[in-house]
């Protein structure tokens, strides 16, 4: 009952976190990778010590790659992002990086994406995010259709929208801060992580809603009258252990991925971790308590 | 009697394990196929301009794929992949694409040259010079392209048809369809010029003297013998029926891919150990059962990857590790429910039965929402995303089997009917303390 009784404070807390995430996204908007904008990315590994970034920038400018951005990658590697390169320009870039044969290097990655493919990904990502949210909300409203008393099943659906928006804003904000300090860019995997969070984060919410549904069903059968806020409070307490434990197993697996996995999936693992944690506290502190004020609104209309 | 289903599951799991472990050799038909980001190699995506083709667009695209496949095979790549794709339904303009995957190839330029340098061959009618005498000549597509070519030959002119004796000429032989088209075009347009375009450039524009029913055409450009020979070879390798343009390329060096694969395996193993350790320490006997079920889950997922087959990518491995954490979620819900039933005074066997039954609605709803998002992810479509979505989606289904069905069979086999008392209560409870759960 503690959470339901003090829900205003928890709403404030989650609200502040969301606002902080939005601010982070606005102030430090993550740079979009070439997956979205089109362009080329060359990653090379130097056999001996790599040159300084400023050196490389100077060399590249000399070779006519004025818009190239350079970033360190791994121990001896460099990642260079440019506009889309033709095969000839690609060769020229490699020669410039090797300082005309003075430095030994191997090319470990070359990605080149035309602008049309990049645009297509942005559109698709947006549609995918929206359709996942709509599909989940519709499913929840449908799955809880039998519990329309005292609260219409749409209240559960609407709560889920709030939760989903919170659950992707917080990890996205986290990514904005992380990207600001490390220089990483939002790529396809970032979108995948957000979509996976959408699919997973409502799980905890469903567990609590499911318990509410069960209590309401039982009360209806036995004719017991119980305040809705009380039902919600009881449901939260009863399911607290499993909400935390289901997330904990996922956190354990993702921690292994972040620490031991390939560097390619590091940001992916971190964003997911942030999302799973956000999804857990939001379902306990935000989703279930939110049903109480919504119930008042929906019963008035009914 | 209650052991029989459990024994059955164990035998199936044993067979699964045997299959998964014995089909890993490089030569095995069921070896896991590694994506280019793990194995190293080059992926090229071409934009195919099917609008440039008059008539059967789909047929032209199919023959484009065949031609490129022949070229790629000539390049000497093991297990290349050449397939046609469409841009997604939500993209602004619809495009046809050709995806070419070349495992092991890291020289993009050589690959692009080998694939792209095939000539496109077209026949266009030269419009009658208009009255206002515009400087540009109007060319009208005839629909006859390299697609209808049977083969090309190098000949040396005997001195007829305007070419000096001994100069190289390229003779084109059309296939049946091409022969008919060529006969009709020449028959309908006697006196006009028919231009032969190679890679978008007119190379010769002979005047049609009469209908040519025989299905052969001769190009008498200003060829050197070497140029003529190259042209014939390229035409025979396959003139591209549809013009293509490189839209994206992606090359991963083999060492980078190998390191990513090793790291992914390591992370999967450690993730698996962490999850099982937690489950056993916290949920005791039930946790042991969940861990066995998790092993079966892993076997099932690997089986699906091998049989479908799903190409494993770095993002696929990430999806797999995430799914290990998700797979025991249903177990957590069930075990917590069992504890509640025990506290309500049910005997251990009944608690197991009711625990599974009552936890089901939450498990169903949770898994379905995950399945919905994995389907939408798959539809999002690029290969990175699809690798993740497939593993994630199949993982969700496999975890229903392992966490719900398999652990139920095992627990019901282990816990006897009417089992009661502190020992059972302890074994089926949870927490790091050594007491049975108190009410």
SSE blueprint and pairings:
The complex is a heterodimer of chains A (302) and B (439).
Chain A: H1 2-5, H2 7-27, H3 34-37, E1 39-46, H4 53-62, E2 69-73, E3 77-82, H5 87-97, E4 105-113, H6 115-143, H7 153-182, H8 188-222, H9 228-260, H10 266-301
Antiparallel strand pairs in A: 1-3, 1-4, 2-3
Chain B: H1 3-22, H2 36-39, E1 41-48, H3 57-75, E2 81-86, E3 96-103, H4 108-116, E4 121-126, E5 139-145, E6 149-156, E7 168-174, H5 176-188, E8 193-198, E9 201-204, E10 216-219, H6 225-238, E11 244-252, H7 254-307, H8 314-327, H9 329-343, H10 348-380, H11 383-414, H12 422-427
Antiparallel strand pairs in B: 1-3, 1-11, 2-3, 4-5, 4-8, 6-7, 7-10, 8-9
Helix pairs in contact in B: 1-7, 1-11, 7-8, 7-11, 8-11, 9-10, 9-11, 10-11
Quickly give the CATH architecture of the largest domain in chain A. Answer: Up-down Bundle
Mean pLDDT of chain A: 87
Radius of gyration based on Cα positions of chain A: 25 Å
* CATH-level-2 architecture of the largest domain in chain B: Up-down Bundle
CATH 4th-level superfamily of the largest domain in chain B: Multidrug efflux transporter AcrB transmembrane domain
Please describe the biggest sheet of chain A, giving its number of strands, its sense, and whether it closes into a barrel: 4 strands, antiparallel
Q: Which term fits the overall shape of chain A?
A: elongated
Number of strands of chain A: 4
Element-by-element helix/strand order of chain A: HHHEHEEHEHHHHH
Strand content of chain A: 5-15%
CATH class label of the largest domain in chain B: Mainly Alpha
Terminal CA distance of chain B reads 33 Å
Helix content of chain B: 40-55%
Q: Helix share of residues of chain A?
A: over 70%
Main sheet: strand order of chain B: 2-3-1-11
The residue ranges of chain B in which pLDDT falls below 50 over 5 or more consecutive positions are none
Look up the CATH topology of the largest domain in chain A.
Multidrug efflux transporter AcrB transmembrane fold
């Amino acid at each position: 009952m503690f959470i339901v009784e003090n829900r205003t404070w928890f709403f404030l807390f989650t609200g502040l976190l969301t606002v902080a995430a939005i601010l982070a996204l606005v102030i430090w908007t993550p740079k979009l990778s070439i997956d979205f904008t089109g362009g080329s990315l060359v990653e090379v590994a130097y056999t001996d010590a790599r040159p300084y970034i400023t050196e490389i920038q100077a060399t590249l400018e000399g070779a006519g790659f004025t818009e190239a951005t350079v970033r360190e990658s791994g121990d001896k590697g460099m990642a260079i992002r440019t506009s889309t390169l033709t095969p000839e320009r690609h060769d020229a870039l490699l020669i410039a990086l090797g300082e005309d044969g003075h430095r030994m290097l191997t090319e470990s990655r070359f990605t080149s994406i035309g602008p049309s493919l990049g645009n297509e990904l942005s559109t698709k990502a947006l549609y995918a995010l929206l359709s996942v949210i709509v599909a989940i909300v519709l499913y929840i409203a449908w799955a809880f259709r039998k519990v329309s008393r005292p609260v219409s099943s749409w209240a559960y659906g609407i709560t889920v929208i709030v939760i989903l928006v919170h659950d992707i804003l917080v990890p996205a904000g986290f990514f904005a801060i992380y990207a600001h300090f490390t220089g990483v860019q939002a790529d396809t995997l970032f979108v995948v992580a957000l979509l996976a969070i959408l699919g997973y984060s409502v799980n905890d919410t469903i567990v609590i809603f499911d318990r509410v549904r069960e209590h309401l069903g039982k009360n209806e059968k036995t004719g017991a009258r119980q305040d809705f806020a009380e039902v919600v409070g009881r449901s939260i307490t009863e399911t607290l252990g499993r909400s935390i434990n289901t997330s904990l197993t996922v956190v354990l697996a993702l921690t292994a991925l972040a620490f031991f996995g390939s560097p390619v999936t590091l940001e992916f693992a971190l964003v997911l971790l942030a999302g799973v944690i956000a999804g857990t506290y939001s379902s306990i502190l935000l989703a279930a308590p939110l049903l109480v004020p919504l119930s008042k609104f929906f019963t008035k209309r009914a | 009697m209650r052991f029989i289903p459990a024994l059955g599951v164990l035998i199936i799991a044993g067979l699964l394990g045997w299959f998964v472990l014995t089909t890993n050799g490089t030569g095995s038909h069921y070896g896991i196929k590694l994506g280019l980001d793990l194995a190293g190699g080059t992926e090229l995506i071409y934009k195919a301009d099917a609008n440039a083709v008059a008539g059967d667009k789909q047929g032209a695209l199919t023959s484009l794929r065949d031609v490129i496949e022949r070229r790629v095979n000539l390049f000497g790549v093991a297990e290349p992949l050449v397939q046609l794709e469409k841009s997604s339904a939500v993209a602004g303009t619809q495009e046809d694409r050709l995806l070419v995957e070349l495992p092991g190839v890291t020289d993009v330029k050589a690959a692009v040259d080998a694939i792209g340098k095939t000539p496109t061959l077209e026949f266009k009618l030269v419009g009658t010079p208009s009255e206002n005498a515009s400087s540009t000549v109007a060319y009208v597509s005839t629909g006859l392209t390299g697609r209808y070519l049977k083969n090309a030959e190098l000949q040396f002119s005997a001195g007829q048809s305007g070419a000096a004796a001994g100069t190289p000429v390229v003779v084109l032989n059309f296939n049946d369809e091409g022969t008919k088209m060529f006969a009709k075009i020449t028959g309908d347009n006697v006196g006009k010029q028919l231009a032969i375009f190679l890679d978008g450039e007119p190379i010769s524009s002979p005047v049609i003297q009469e209908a040519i029913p025989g299905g052969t055409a001769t190009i008498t450009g200003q060829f050197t013998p070497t140029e003529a020979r190259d042209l014939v070879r390229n035409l025979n390798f396959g003139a591209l029926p549809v013009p293509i343009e490189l839209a994206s390329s992606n090359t991963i060096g083999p060492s980078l891919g190998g390191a990513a694969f090793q790291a992914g395996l390591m992370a999967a193993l450690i993730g698996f150990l962490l999850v099982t350790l937690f489950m056993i320490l916290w949920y005791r006997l039930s946790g042991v059962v969940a861990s066995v079920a998790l092993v079966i889950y892993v076997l099932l997922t690997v089986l699906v990857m091998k049989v479908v087959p799903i190409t494993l990518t770095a993002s696929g491995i990430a999806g797999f590790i995430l799914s290990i954490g998700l797979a025991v979620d249903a177990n957590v819900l069930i075990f917590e429910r069992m504890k509640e039933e025990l506290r309500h005074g049910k005997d251990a066997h009944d608690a197991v039965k009711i625990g599974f039954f009552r936890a089901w609605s939450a498990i169903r709803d949770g898994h379905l929402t995950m399945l919905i998002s994995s389907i939408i992810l798959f539809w999002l479509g690029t290969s990175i995303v699809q690798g993740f979505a497939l593993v994630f989606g199949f993982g969700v289904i496999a975890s229903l089997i392992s966490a719900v069905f398999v652990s139920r069979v095992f627990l019901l086999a282990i816990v006897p009917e009417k089992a009661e008392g502190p020992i059972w209560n302890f074994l089926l409870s949870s927490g790091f303390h050594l007491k049975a759960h108190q009410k």
